[in-house]
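Collaborator request, handled under Task 6.
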Amino acid sequence: MLFATGNQPPGPRRPQVEVLVTPDCPHRDAAIALAQRVCEQLGSHAEIRVVQVPDQAAAEQARFLGSPSIRVNGRDIEPGAERNLELVHGCRLYQGAHSLHGLPEEDWLRQALDNPEAQP
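Structure tokens returned to the collaborator:
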């Protein structure tokens, strides 16, 4: 909880970046490194948390779209991800410009961190 001193309101909330992964995800370390690198490059003071999703029941409870997933303030960084209704305890692939990738686009994370409250 944030407390203001004097009459000044508390500053902006520190963004929370979650990297959601299954225990055997081959892209786990690369997704964590992506989150750390982008936060450092932007000078963001975001809190980065790694969240293990151990089974299908946990995937459904977390509204997990597959491993790895990256969220900023609880919202998936992939544009249009909120329309995906398939909750999966397994690998996730992302559509790149020319092929499928095991990681989300760096720009998606940059955009989410640039404006964490207005993210789609």
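The cover message to the collaborator said: "The two ends are 26 Å apart (CA to CA). The helical segments are 28-42, 56-62, 106-114. Please let us know whether this matches your experimental observations."
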